[in-house]
Amino acid sequence: MTPFFAMSLLFSLTFGQTASLCAPSEYIIHVEKRECAYCLAINTTICAGFCMTRDSNGKKLLLKSALSQNVCTYKEMFYQTALIPGCPHHTIPYYSYPVAVSCKCGKCNTDYSDCVHEKVRTNYCTKPQKLCNM
């Protein structure tokens, strides 16, 4: 094996591992209800990272299913429920949220994922904040 080939192989294996970095990542969700006195800051894990994808130049020649791009999404997850403090008795004070156990690069499933990333920052509190460590 030539030194050039060996270096090329080593580079492609290293780049391939770092380029497809998709893993559980710590994240804080801010949850509040209009009727409740507090905003709840929840520590959880979400799937985040970069997945290799390709944009074909022959878009008109391929089926739409061949054009879908991979995203970093849940492989394994479970739901946890938190109690929002300061809610009146007539309000349901519970909030359920996903916790990522493992992640994968794949097609985005709208049944349990938000497949559109908006630029507007909406994850903040407008009320006094309470921290929830689950």
Automatic annotation (TrEMBL):
Identify the InterPro entries for this entry: Cystine-knot_cytokine, Glyco_hormone_CN, Gonadotropin_bsu, Gonadotropin_bsu_CS
- GO BP terms in the entry: G protein-coupled receptor signaling pathway
Per UniProt, which keywords does this protein have? Disulfide bond, Glycoprotein, Hormone, Secreted, Signal
Concerning CDD domains, the annotation shows: GHB_like
Q: What is its main location?
A: secreted
Q: Which residues form the signal peptide?
A: 1-16
Question: Where's it found, cell-wise?
Answer: Secreted
A GO CC annotation given for this chain: cytoplasm
| UniProt-listed Gene3D superfamilies | Cystine-knot cytokines
Q: Which GO terms describe its molecular function?
A: hormone activity
The record, for PANTHER family, names: GLYCOPROTEIN HORMONE BETA CHAIN, THYROTROPIN SUBUNIT BETA
What's this protein's name?
Thyrotropin subunit beta
Q: What is the lineage of its organism?
A: Eukaryota, Metazoa, Chordata, Craniata, Vertebrata
